[in-house]
Amino acid sequence: MPGKRARRHFSQLSEFERGQIIGMKTAGWSTRRVAGQVDRSVCAVRNCWEQWTREGTHARKPGSGATRKTTRREERRIVRQALVDPTVTRSTIRADVGVAIVPQIVSRHLAEANLKS
Fold it and tell me: According to the UniProt record, where is the region Disordered (predicted)?
């Protein structure tokens, strides 16, 4: 099909791209022309422009989901304890860190560090 672009992997609009979109749309460019220029979908350009006209900003909103229960420092401490004593249990690590977390969080941090539980 002529004119059909191959799908590329999804990625967020960068701040620079958002600024480009706002500038081109402000200058009177069509949404399709802007989308072709920045190599993004028409829908992404339209959403960015609508956010700009509605809220007056083009900044990304913070993501949804649960807030982190541990800090980066506490995560490093969990991994360090597992490296120093490989026989230590999740419950012991959890008690040593001193933060109210469930044992699954300890396991997840160890898995992220490529350690077996």
Answer: 54-74
